[in-house]
Write a structure and sequence with these properties.
One of its GO terms (biological process) is 'de novo' NAD+ biosynthetic process from L-aspartate. Its main location: cytoplasm. The protein has 14 helices and twelve strands. The chain has 303 residues and is of the alpha/beta class. The chain has three domains: 106 residues, Rossmann fold; 82 residues, Rossmann fold (3-Layer(aba) Sandwich), CATH 3.40.50.10800; 79 residues, 3-Layer(aba) Sandwich (Rossmann fold). Helix 10 links the parallel strand 9 and strand 10. It binds 1,3-dihydroxyacetonephosphate and iron/sulfur cluster. 1,3-dihydroxyacetonephosphate binds next to helix 3.
């Protein structure tokens, strides 16, 4: 029954005591985004995690994000307030199946979307997020590429660069709920609106969009384009930032099914308890960490 206000005050006090920083993804609950020191997309959050001088990082997101923070900053205490908040897409690839696939593709470079476990990252040449995927693939020149695990982002990048790639058959359960018929109906209801979607959407959906980009990309597009109405094809949490940074514009979620249960599992009570108990803590075994870090570092070095 504690109010958001009381909890936010408790969190601020504990944060000072613990020398902690709170990072939150754009898909988090509005009240969680509001207590964060930094809200961003996956790439911005990994840069923050790598660069912060805080002793404790509270990661309000899903498991792979906190794990990336632990890979990049092993000396910090990285907390995931809801230990069960995983990413179903990340679970669609495991290290053993990837090793098998690599054996059948000798000479291919493996590009791994950060939505993957540390064990999988450790098997890859370089990581990417949705905001730098094309740049990362381009940096590999003419090498053949196996892209894991998101087939939708993989195909989007492949078309953008005109480079065929082997695609792992993974996808995001949340974005997969959005169909082209939702976009067509929304366009009919809001004929002046621009359709902005995340590349994790199905191919039939991103083909219909006016703009495709990472969460930060979608927010930047809404801020800088002259349009005043937008049909939004990504997780509902992004509406909080869209509305607060563009108060005079209108945003319509393309479907009310765009809710990621895992992203919504983090609450203010859990953030407070994590700071209080310094738990649940995310760590990565050193051998895996070093290999996964090499793949993340290669991505971060691309700027
Ligand atoms: P970005 O914030 O990098 O666009 O990632 C989207 C996502 O699905 C994270 O789980
Ligand atoms: Fe994973 Fe999709 Fe949820 Fe992001 S929105 S955490 S990709 S299931």
């Amino acid at each position: 029954n504690e109010t958001f206000e009381t909890l936010a005050r408790e969190i601020a006090d504990l944060k000072r005591e613990r020398k902690a920083v709170i990072l939150a993804h754009y898909y988090q609950r509005p009240e969680v985004q509001d207590v964060a020191d930094f809200v961003g997309d996956s790439l911005q959050l990994s840069r923050q995690a790598a660069g912060t001088d805080a002793e404790v990082v509270v990661f309000c997101g899903v498991h792979f994000m906190a794990e990336s923070a632990a890979i990049l900053s092993p000396e910090k205490t990285v907390l995931l307030p809801e230990a069960e908040a995983g990413c179903p897409m990340a679970e669609m690839v495991d290290a053993e199946s990837l090793r098998l696939r690599k054996r059948s593709l000798p000479g291919s470079k493996v590009v791994c979307y950060v939505n993957s476990s540390a064990d999988v990252k450790a098997e890859c040449d370089v990581c990417c997020t949705s905001s730098n995927a094309a740049k990362v693939v381009e940096s590999l020149g003419t090498s053949p590429v196996l892209f894991v695990p998101d087939k939708n982002l993989g195909l989007y990048v492949s078309e953008k660069l005109g480079k065929p790639m082997d695609l792992w058959p993974g996808f995001c359960l949340t974005h997969d709920r959005l169909a082209s018929s939702d976009i067509t109906e929304a366009r009919r209801a809001h004929p002046r609106a621009k359709v902005i979607v995340h590349p994790e959407c199905r191919e039939e959906v991103w083909r219909l969009a006016d703009y495709v980009g990472s969460t930060a990309g979608l927010i930047r597009y809404a801020q800088t384009t002259e349009a005043e109405e937008f049909i939004v094809g990504t997780e509902s949490g992004i509406l909080h930032q869209l509305q607060s940074t563009c108060p005079d514009k209108k945003f319509y979620l393309a479907s009310d099914k765009l809710v990621c249960r895992n992203m919504k599992a983090t609450t203010l009570v859990k953030v407070r308890d994590a700071l209080r108990n310094l738990s649940p803590r995310i760590t990565v075994a050193e051998e895996t960490r070093l290999k996964a870090k090499a793949a993340l570092d290669r991505m971060l070095e691309l700027g």
